[in-house]
Specification:
Layout: E1 13-29, E2 35-55, E3 60-62, H1 75-87, E4 92-98, H2 109-124, H3 131-139, H4 145-150, E5 154-157, E6 162-165, H5 170-173, E7 176-182, H6 188-193, H7 215-221, H8 227-233, H9 235-244, E8 251-252, E9 259-263, H10 266-274, E10 280-285
The protein binds 4-diphosphocytidyl-2-C-methyl-D-erythritol and adenosine-5'-triphosphate.
Residues 21, 24, 33-35, 37, 39, 111, 142-144, 159-160, 188-189, 192, 254-255 line the site of 4-diphosphocytidyl-2-C-methyl-D-erythritol.
Length: 299
């Protein structure tokens, strides 16, 4: 039985959905080492719950630090600090994170937590920052933060920060996404730096993916360029992906370790989760048209 994404009325509860990269093409490398890429991001109705309450003494306190991550390095506190500095705000916050998105899983868990803190504190501290301003602050924390603030299915270019809304066809939006994560963490920087990574994918156009494109053509046109490198380095990812490919056009999200496949109904999704390989975690979810906190920033 899937845990329903929490949408009950609770003023201190803020949701941090995870993302899938439906595909990820690397089209070049910049002089500073960062990679030019093209991707479509889909936010899912599954993720972390953040409980955020106002403090008037200016302190930022993480109530349940993650194992192995110092509170000052946690993306939630870093996001709150960045917002405090940029706005000169004297208010603070207590933050409690219920983690559901596997860490280092290519699902943008930490980035989404950071985005949710920026959106929530923009509201709680009454800062009135625009979406664009919050996205700029988010980008200083990580390449994946802006897309969560953008808050809609997105076509991404540049190093991932140039975002446009893309209206995905029903064949993509109506699917049930089964996401399986081997119990390992893949370091993103290691994969981007690997000599075997291909960096010359031919640039595509957003028009190839907008409403009207049918889903079988969609999956045939695209891939994740990081997949061959990650599969060669991490047999756990290779084996999980091979297993999931029995059920459809399975792909890796981001730099892994998570892999996913789109299926037609909840029964099939439940079946795959129940039968998933050993030493993996899994969930299924549907795509979101809007981030639950979309209205916390004005355009
Ligand atoms: C793979 C993706 O998850 C796809 O959505 C993102 O591009 C990575 O986003 P992220 O985890 O927020 O990444 P960051 O923390 O900004 O960067 C981690 C490292 O990945 C490399 N990096 C990241 C993004 C990019 N376009 N080119 C890169 O080469 C850089 O070495 C960087 O030091
Ligand atoms: N709030 C947080 N949640 C998760 N990880 C965090 C957080 N704060 C800092 N981190 C650090 O960030 C690392 C990457 O975590 P995250 O879950 O964002 O990875 P990811 O899903 O692979 O991200 P991406 O898809 O953006 O590459 C973790 O291993 C952890 O050390």
């Amino acid at each position: 039985m899937r845990m329903l994404y929490n949408t009950r009325m609770d003023a201190s509860l803020f949701l941090a959905p995870c993302k899938l990269n439906l595909f990820l093409h690397i089209t070049g490398r910049r002089a500073d080492g960062y990679h030019a890429l093209q991707s479509i991001f889909l936010l899912l109705d599954h993720g972390d719950d953040l409980r955020i309450t106002l403090r008037t003494d200016g302190q930022l306190l993480l109530q349940n630090p993650l194992p192995g991550v110092l509170p000052e390095n946690d993306l939630t506190i870093r996001a709150a600090r960045a917002l405090q500095i940029s706005s000169n705000c004297r208010l603070g916050a207590d933050i409690h994170c219920t983690k559901r998105t596997p860490m280092g899983g290519g699902l943008g868990g930490g980035s989404s937590d950071a985005a949710t803190v920026l959106l929530a504190l923009n509201q709680l501290w009454q800062l009135g920052y625009t979406r664009q301003q919050l996205m700029q602050i988010g980008l200083t924390l990580g390449a994946d933060v802006p897309v969560f603030i953008f808050g809609q299915p997105a076509w991404a270019e540049g190093v991932g920060e140039q975002l446009s809304a893309v209206e995905l066809p029903p064949e993509i939006m109506n699917k049930y996404y089964v996401v399986i994560t081997p119990q390992i963490q893949v370091p993103t920087a290691e994969i981007f730096a690997h000599q075997a990574l291909t960096r010359d994918s031919k640039p595509l156009r957003i028009a190839d993916f907008s409403n009207g494109a049918n889903s079988s053509a969609f999956w045939q046109q695209v891939r994740n360029d990081m997949e061959p490198v990650v599969c060669a380095l991490y047999p756990e990812v290779n084996n999980t992906l091979a297993w999931l490919k029995q059920y459809g056009d399975a792909r890796m999200s981001g730099s892994g370790a998570s892999v996913f496949v789109a299926v037609d109904n909840a029964k099939k999704a439940d079946e795959l989760i129940a039968n998933r390989p050993e030493n993996t975690s899994g969930f299924w979810a549907k795509g979101l048209k809007y981030h639950p906190l979309f209205s916390s920033a004005k355009d």
